[in-house]
C-alpha cells in the first residue's frame, strides 16, 4: 500500500516546514491536502494510514483534511476545457482531438490550521486557544 508511504511523506514534509519556521508541531490541528482525481491515491487508505503514522510523530495532535481536485482536460486542437470522463478518456468530446491534463494530478499540502495559543512550558498544555489557518506553508 503506497498510501502508507504517502502518509509518512506528508508528515515529514510538514515537520520539516515547521522546523524551518520554528513552529511547534503540537500547534498543528489540521493538515489540508489537495488530491487530484488522477493522482492514483486511495483517499480512504491514505486517511487510515495517516491515522497510524501520525501517532508516532510530533504531529500526533493533527488530523488530515483532504480536498478532491477534479481532473480538467484541455483539447490541443480546439482549446476546449472539459472535466475528465472515462467515456471520452483523453479525447475531446467536441472535436475528438487529443487532450492534455490541466488539473487533477495534484498531491499537495495546501495549508495548516494552527492553534494560535501560548504553551505553558511546564505542562506542555495550551494556555489559551484560537485556531488560525496558514496557507502555503509547505511548497
From TrEMBL:
Record flagged with keyword Transmembrane helix: no
Binding site for Ni(2+): 2
Coiled coil: none
Chain sites annotated for binding Zn(2+): 75, 78, 92, 95
Top-level lineage group: Bacteria
Keywords for the protein's UniProt record, in alphabetical order: Metal-binding, Nickel, Zinc
Record InterPro entries: HypA/HybF (IPR000688)
Keyword hit for Zinc: yes
Protein family per UniProt: Belongs to the HypA/HybF family.
PANTHER family listed in its UniProt record: HYDROGENASE MATURATION FACTOR HYPA
Cited function: Involved in the maturation of [NiFe] hydrogenases. Required for nickel insertion into the metal center of the hydrogenase.
Name of this chain's protein: Hydrogenase maturation factor HypA
Organism this protein belongs to: Ferrimicrobium acidiphilum
Lineage: Bacteria, Bacillati, Actinomycetota, Acidimicrobiia, Acidimicrobiales
Amino acid at each position: 500500500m503506497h498510501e502508507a508511504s504517502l502518509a509518512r511523506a506528508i508528515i515529514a514534509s510538514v515537520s520539516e516546514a515547521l522546523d524551518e519556521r520554528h513552529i511547534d508541531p503540537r500547534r498543528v490541528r489540521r493538515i489540508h491536502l489537495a488530491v487530484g482525481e488522477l493522482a492514483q491515491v486511495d483517499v480512504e487508505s491514505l486517511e487510515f494510514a495517516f491515522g497510524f503514522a501520525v501517532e508516532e510523530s510530533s504531529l500526533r495532535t493533527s488530523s488530515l483534511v483532504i480536498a478532491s481536485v477534479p481532473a480538467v482536460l484541455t483539447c490541443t486542437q480546439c482549446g476546449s476545457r472539459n472535466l475528465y470522463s472515462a467515456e471520452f478518456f483523453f479525447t475531446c468530446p467536441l472535436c475528438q482531438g487529443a487532450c492534455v491534463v490541466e488539473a487533477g494530478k495534484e498531491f499537495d499540502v495546501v495549508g495548516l490550521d494552527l492553534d494560535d495559543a501560548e504553551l505553558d512550558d511546564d505542562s506542555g498544555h495550551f494556555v489559551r486557544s484560537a485556531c488560525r489557518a496558514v496557507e502555503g506553508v509547505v511548497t
